[in-house]
Amino acid sequence: MSGGPDGAALVADWLASLTHVRRLSPHTERAYAATARRFLAHVEGATGRPADLALLADLTPADLRGYLAARRAGGLSARSAARELSALRTFFRHLARHRGLDSTALGRIEAPKVPKGVPRPLPPDDAIALAAAAGEAARLPWIAARDTAVLLLLYGAGLRISEALALDGSVLPLGETLQLSGKGGKVRTVVLLPQVREAVEAYARLCPWPPSAGAPLFRGARGGPLSPDVLRRSARAARVALGLPETATPHALRHSFATHLLAGGADLRTIQELLGHASLASTQVYTAVDAAQLMDVYRASHPRGG
Is 94 a catalytic residue? Predict the structure, then answer.
């Protein structure tokens, strides 16, 4: 096999297919791109050959294990290593389909064992307090209202951060439900509680940039789209101020939404639809969360619980 396109061209072609065909989230695309580029740089350095199609076809399971071992030695967790292997499998499948790559090396690599854990939800009072405190810490009233509104969307409607920040001005005025396009372009309908609607509308009234269709609803201090990192920093400061654990993150609010629905009697299928999970297996983790919370109460209250 001739060398063919270089690694950069192969990655660019793959990323274009992810954008237009698989419709992955921008965050996932960035992670996939970083993994592919790291991998190509590694095999180029390890073999002394340019990372082109010919090199990729010659790779063995040992080459791939060497890359994962180097990443683990650098501090990568088993969970992250499994994600990197998944990204590389997607990359190689694309090359097999579109470039005729004949390599079975990846198929003989087992993903690292990932310890199973359960999400750490917040009690309802803490979830609401986190949203309120994040707003109270802001210097400007409109930013305070913004941070509270976004965090209440995560807790009160189960949105992902990316989904909340992708909303534009066309969603206003809000009704009792909201249609979202989530992962993979999957459309779902979520219910908006009155408190959530009021928080978003209060922010919209205070925002210096009037909401408009096609423009981001939630804006940064200079008027651009709100960065998720800004929201995470706001939640972190609120968490510290309230003395909440490190697990009290914006994403934990979505977990809390699901867990509290389950505890209130909602069935798994309903929760699956509200969260936008592709499979019921992703939602079933909340049964473990609910059981874990019950055990915590038992241990704390029962004389023989410890």
Answer: no
Same domain, 280 and 211: yes
In whole numbers, what is the pLDDT of the chain averaged over residues? Answer: 76
Residue 235 carries which side chain, given as an amino acid letter? A
| Active-site residue flag, 89 | no
Are 211 and 280 in a shared domain? yes
Whether 19 and 81 share a structural domain: yes
C-beta of residue 231 within 8 angstroms of C-beta of residue 130: no
- CATH number of the domain residue 254 falls in: 1.10.443.10
Span 165-182, pLDDT tens digits:
989 999 888 888 888 776
Of the residues 59, 76, 108, the one at which a domain ends: 108
Indicate if 27 belongs to the active site: no
For residues 199 and 276, state if they share a domain: yes
Task: Give ∠ CA 8-184-187 in degrees, rounded to 5.
Answer: 155
298 counts as catalytic: no
| Distance from C-alpha of 292 to C-alpha of 187, rounded to nearest angstrom | 31
124-164 pLDDT, tens digit per residue, is: 778 888 888 887 767 788 998 999 999 988 887 878 888 88
